[in-house]
Design goal:
The chain is α/β, with parallel strands linked by helices and about 950 residues long. The protein has 36 helices and 19 strands. Helix 18 packs parallel to helix 29 and helix 21 crosses helix 29.
Length: about 950
């Protein structure tokens, strides 16, 4: 007996595909009892095509959901008096193969327990790519097909088997089962209703089979965005994700529901991070909106679960074997990381190919580089890497440079402090607290914000297990190798831009090694100037990113803007003057472009990326810059980081790349300057060398202007921070010398070999001398910072801010100064806050009276300010000590050094005097900074395609 089958065709703006679908229905080898068409408000001729083909069509409004359309079709069958055994559901973009229905019915006849059957879905129009052979769902709501991405149909999945669900495009379902289960859930208007229906069917004891012999070609128009309906709107991903979450929450066993709610919450946050990494901000927001939509309306899920419990024979555990394995989401996570690496690799290959193509256009006709052309060449290329390394003197020497740099940096292994480097705090939490606090219990209390570099150092310390000491040590250890790597990459690209053949590897090694040694030979490394060390290490990477401004493609120039902006922000966080220099250089470049290429200034994609990169810095550093100006600490925007006094630089220091008596012998720097000057001679590279000298000239002028400034701080007078200008100037001269060496190799003059040989000898002295000096130097960061305060007092001060120590130094004749020690003393990050805090004149007046005419009120005030001890370090002034000995409320305390005098304040200690107001402005700026940093980081990353393309 031939079973009766009614085809139910749902259409909506499917005129593009309906003619082929109608032909496919007519060509079925198995007979159809009837065809019912339901059109949901099509604006094209879809309804007319169905009516012309099958004589009748239900015309429903555009807001009709897919479950409602199926319900209307079943109602029309009842009105006709038809009671077919099977309902075959089809979409207007699903074209069945002529044997599809026959194969489904054959499988149903072979397995009488089968109640729901589905075909093999293949991509239309490619016809060979597999889309689905049954479907299930993972614990995170991902639709699982069990297929590899882009897998082609080669008969590898052609076994009939039981599955959780089949797609509604081609689903064959017993009419009685469809009606007994209440049809499709109206809460799933377009997506996810197939998995939900299959889950409910399995829970009710019904069997769902996938029949690979039945083939349906599916466009997936709604999923791919090939068409939009009132139900999908503009946010297809939101609808899909909401449907998946709803399906999980509505059908999961009750005992798993609490865990599932928590898992989906954190899983959504993790998915958002993944989408942001690939710059799919819209999909990340859709994920969050879908979760919040469901969690804000728990009644929907509660009603759905109640309806499922009321179904006859419902047992949710029956579907468990058909669900996706627990480990599948983790496999997808690994796949995502692989996609990200592949995207980054492809992007790098794309850049290399574009550069190679540009170079080929400039290549002479006779130039024909050899590339591997067959499998044997490729195998030889792979297996010969180690051999080439061991036989390549440049590679071996580069490795030796790295090893020597690590050996020379041996002092930085472990805890370091001294010179301009303050001790580090006990844990990363201290840095995080300093970063987020709007009022610091330092001294007598201050609202000066934490310096901008505290945030990256806190992040690095957190990644290293919460150890600030490890973070600082890592910065000083890897600064030179990291700079060497970046300088090599930058000089290699520059060499290819100026000369087709590129720079010699010996030139690259000299330039990279000399540039990497800049923070060492200038004295910043040994003196512990962490800001200058970080800037010197990141400067070649910043310069490499800035080369993207010259890219012909506008979108790549904008991506370069985000990368430059992020790196410039990092450098400016450690050395604010770097931003001033970048802004001045930007103005010079724009002015030069306006003179050379007049139309360039009118093109926003030319000047916009550099302007955006420079403008990002004030935005991302606003939690430091704006409150600093607000709290009369704007001097910090022009000071070098580190302990006072900061080193200065005169004209000779600028030209030799040295900081005020620190660093390697000055003549090594003058050798670099002389080589950069000689680099102007080769004509082939004169223009890029002139560019380097323009950078050097602008840097020198800015250094001269800033060198004339001085700032009166509470403790001392400090000059503007010109250290970063010394680093930049020396880097520009190194680049100029390296480019000149490249140009010298192209000169065809009789004396070229003699001059080149002499210059090689002279140039080699610079890195060799720098490394030799570094290996034999005694850096200040190894000395530590001694304290002349008794140990038990220091231990007491670490118990809380109310156990402060008032330290008074000097004599009455020469003048007295005071500091207040709290906690573990002034640590890295706190020194800038203390230096920029204005003097508390009332407290200073009180200290002045304490050492001359003390009263009990003054001693009471000490307790109210959280001062537990008063210390006169050696050599203590006898007159002051005598006055304090006679002061009521001060009890003499012991000290290891007899010439050091100390007293304990015999009053109740109170830290309330250190409390200050909360700055909501800075809290808002911190939020803006965090969001801005995430957005810019995402814009810097490569893009991967997270959805199938539209055919």
């Amino acid at each position: 007996m031939v079973p009766s089958v009614a085809a139910l065709l749902v259409s909506h703006d499917g005129e593009r595909w309906l003619p082929a679908v109608i032909d496919g229905l007519r060509a079925q080898r198995a007979p159809l009892t009837t065809v019912v068409g339901v059109d949901t408000g099509s604006k094209d001729r879809s309804a007319d095509l169905v009516e012309r083909a099958f004589g009748d069509v239900l015309r429903a409004p555009g807001s009709t959901s897919f479950p409602a359309a199926v319900g209307l079709g079943l109602e029309r069958l009842r009105e006709r008096g038809d009671a077919p055994e099977w309902i075959w559901i089809l979409h207007d973009d699903a074209n069945p193969d002529p044997g599809a229905l026959a194969a489904l019915l054959a499988a149903a006849a072979e397995d009488p327990d089968a109640d729901v059957l589905g075909p093999k879905l293949r991509e239309w129009p490619s016809l060979k790519r597999l889309l689905e052979l049954g479907v299930t769902i993972s614990g995170t709501g991902r639709r699982e097909t069990g297929l590899e991405r882009g897998e082609y149909d080669q008969g590898q999945h052609d076994d009939v088997r039981r599955v959780l669900a089949v797609n509604t495009a081609g689903m064959l379902v017993r009419r009685t089962v469809l009606e007994s289960l209440g049809g499709f859930d109206p809460q799933l208007p377009i997506f996810g209703n197939d998995i939900d229906f299959g889950w409910r069917a399995a829970a009710a004891g019904h069997t769902t089979l996938v029949v690979p012999q039945a083939i349906v070609f599916h466009v997936e128009a709604a999923h791919r965005g090939a068409r939009r309906t009132p139900l999908t709107g503009r946010h297809t991903h939101y609808q899909e994700r909401r449907a998946a979450l709803y399906t999980l929450l509505a059908n999961a066993p009750g005992r798993k529901l609490p865990w599932l709610v928590v898992r989906l919450f954190f899983g959504t946050l993790l998915r958002m991070v993944g989408f942001l990494v690939v710059r799919s901000v819209g999909e990340a927001l859709d994920d969050l909106a879908a979760l919040l939509s469901l969690y804000a309306h728990p009644g929907e899920v509660r009603s759905a679960r109640q309806a499922r419990r009321e179904q006859p024979r419902a047992d949710l555990d029956r579907a468990r074997p058909l669900l996706s394995p627990w480990w599948v989401p983790y496999r997808h996570g690994l796949d995502f990381l692989g996609d990200l690496v592949a995207a980054a690799t492809n992007q790098a290959q794309d850049v290399a190919e574009r550069r190679r193509a540009a170079a080929a256009e400039r290549a002479p006709a006779s130039y024909a580089p050899r590339v591997p052309v067959d499998d044997e060449d490729m195998i030889a290329a792979d297996t010969g890497i180690l051999a080439r390394f061991l036989t390549n003197p440049v590679a071996l020497l580069t490795a030796l440079v790295v090893v020597v740099a690590l050996v020379a940096a041996r002092t930085a292994f472990g805890s370091i402090a001294g010179g301009g480097l303050s001790p580090v705090p006990a844990g990363a939490g201290d840095w995080w607290r300093l970063q987020v606090e709007t009022w610091h219990p330092l001294g007598t209390g201050t609202a000066v914000p934490a310096p901008a570099y505290v945030l990256p150092m806190a992040l690095l310390a957190t990644l290293l297990g919460g150890s600030p000491s490890a973070a600082v040590s890592l910065v000083f250890v890897v600064a030179v190798p990291f700079s060497l790597w970046g300088a090599w990459r930058f000089l290699r690209v520059v060499g290819r831009l100026v000369v087709f053949t590129g720079a010699s590897r010996w030139v690259l090694l000299w330039g990279a090694a000399t540039w990497a040694l800049v923070p060492v030979v200038c004295g910043a490394w040994g003196d512990g100037r962490v800001g200058l060390v970080v800037v010197a290490a990141t400067l070649p990477w910043l310069a490499h990113a800035a080369l993207g401004f010259a890219d012909p493609a506008a979108d790549r120039r904008w991506r370069a803007a985000w990368r430059v902006g992020l790196l410039l922000t990092l450098g400016s966080a450690f050395a604010p003057v770097l931003w001033v220099l970048a802004a001045v250089l930007g103005l010079v470049v724009v002015a030069a472009a306006a003179l050379v290429v007049r139309g360039a200034v009118r093109d926003r994609s030319v000047w916009g990326p550099p302007a955006a990169a420079i403008g990002l810095v004030p935005l991302l550093l606003s939690p430091w810059w704006i409150p600093a100006i607000q709290r009369s600490a704007a001097e910090g925007l022009l000071l070098d980081t580190g302990r006072l006094p900061t080193p200065t630089a005169d004209t000779l220091d600028l030209m030799s790349g040295r900081l005020d008596g620190l660093g390697a012998p000055w003549w090594l720097g003058l050798v670099v300057a002389a080589l950069a000057l000689l680099a102007l001679l080769p004509r082939a590279t004169r223009i890029p060398v002139l560019v380097c000298w323009v950078v050097a000239l602008v840097t020198s002028v800015l250094a001269a202007l800033l060198g004339a400034l001085s700032f009166s701080l509470a403790a001392t007078t400090a000059g503007a921070g010109v250290g970063v200008l010394v680093v930049v100037l020396q880097g520009a001269l190194v680049v100029a010398a390296a480019i000149g060496a490249v140009g010298l190799g192209t000169e065809q003059v009789p004396w070229r070999r003699v001059v080149a040989g002499a210059l090689v000898v002279v140039a080699a002295v610079v890195p060799l001398g720098g490394f030799a000096w570094w290996l034999g130097s005694d850096p200040a960061i190894a000395d530590g910072i001694d304290t002349d305060i008794p140990v038990y007092m220091v231990q007491s001060s670490e118990e809380g801010p109310e156990h402060g120590i008032l330290v008074i130094r000097g004599t009455v004749e020469d003048g007295l100064t005071y500091t207040i020690r709290r906690g573990d003393g002034i640590t890295l990050g706190e020194d800038e806050v203390i230096n920029l805090t204005t003097e508390d004149k009332d407290f200073s007046t009180g200290v002045q009276a304490l050492v001359s005419r003390p009263t009990t009120e003054l001693v009471d005030a000490l307790g109210e300010h959280g001062i537990e001890y008063v210390v006169l370090p050696s050599p203590a002034d006898g007159d002051v000590a005598a006055v304090l000995d006679a002061t009521t409320g001060l009890v003499q305390a012991s000290a290891e050094d007899r010439s050091t005098r100390a007293w304990q304040v015999d009053r109740p200690l109170d830290a309330s005097g250190l409390e200050g107001p909360v700055s909501w402005l800075r809290i808002l700026l911190l939020v803006v900074q965090g969001a801005g940093a995430v957005v810019v980081a995402v814009l810097c990353l490569p893009t991967t395609n997270t959805r199938r393309s539209t055919p």
